[in-house]
Amino acid sequence: MRRTRVGLIDSGLGLVSFAAALHRAAPGLDLLLATDPEHMPYGALEPAQVQERVLASARALEPWAPDALVLACNTASVHALAALRAHAEPEVPVIGTVPAIKSAARASEARGGAPFAVWATSATTASAYQRELISAFAGSTPVASVACAGLAQAIERADDAAIDTAIDAAAAATPAHIDSIVLGCTHYGLVAERIRARRPQTAHLYDSPAAVAAQTLARLGRGAPGAAGGPGGRILAVLASGRPAGLPRALEAYPAGRELLRIAPEQHT
Q1: 180 with 132, same domain?
Q2: Which of 17, 116, 166, 225 is spaced 20 to 30 A from 199 at the CA atom?
Q3: Catalytic annotation, pick one of 61, 71, 73, 183
Q4: Looking at 9, 84, 183, 185, which residue is catalytic?
Q5: Which residues pair with residue 120 across a beta bridge?
Q6: Active-site residue 73, yes or no?
Q7: What residues make up the domain containing 107?
Q8: Average pLDDT value for residue range 185-203
Q9: Residues 53 and 185 in one domain
Q10: In total, how many domains does the chain have?
Q11: Is there a single domain that holds both residue 116 and residue 200?
């Protein structure tokens, strides 16, 4: 019986944590990865361009007949989720990504309204979308919006010095008494432990991969082959701007990346 296939779409390595979370939750799933290095970061594009690129990646995955698609990018989910759902559903369910602001706000409420921070790209930090999420879920809870200039790009290059510099700058911009941070870019989870190490007062990091994996499995249904667990899943395809590619060597720098390398074809770029 053919195993269930899940396609993941992002401009770059932001999809890695989501693919690893899916593999941990259901190791029998096969994965299809579509990145778009020629047009990253999506935050620098106009909304219509983001839609165009996301739909191009989805079409490039169609020969592998994915059973579900995960849009593992906050910016792409804002601008292209509706278009991708119109293109793929109801035959192929599409799962988007939202920063874990709601989860952080609930935890804050349980702690008497403790403030938290949202670390995101400069474009997302300045967006009406993030302001609306904070307004909808955080209410009167103080929230510090912190732009992490260059962090996603440094993660993409696995540039240790640039990653540390960007984390240190974001930490300096975050009020010292805040101990909870929402990771508002899908890349940032790849360096979660480095954030904790360089900002020791950070007790809580909120990210989206586990929740997105759970939602994906729910949309697939437990009867889908591989969705209920069991080993054997692998990466069937890696695309870079629509063309077959290997996984980048940069993945070796991150725990989630190393998880994927263990189930990937041998060729890397």
Answers
A1: yes
A2: 17
A3: 73
A4: 185
A5: 147
A6: yes
A7: 101-206
A8: 97
A9: no
A10: 2
A11: yes
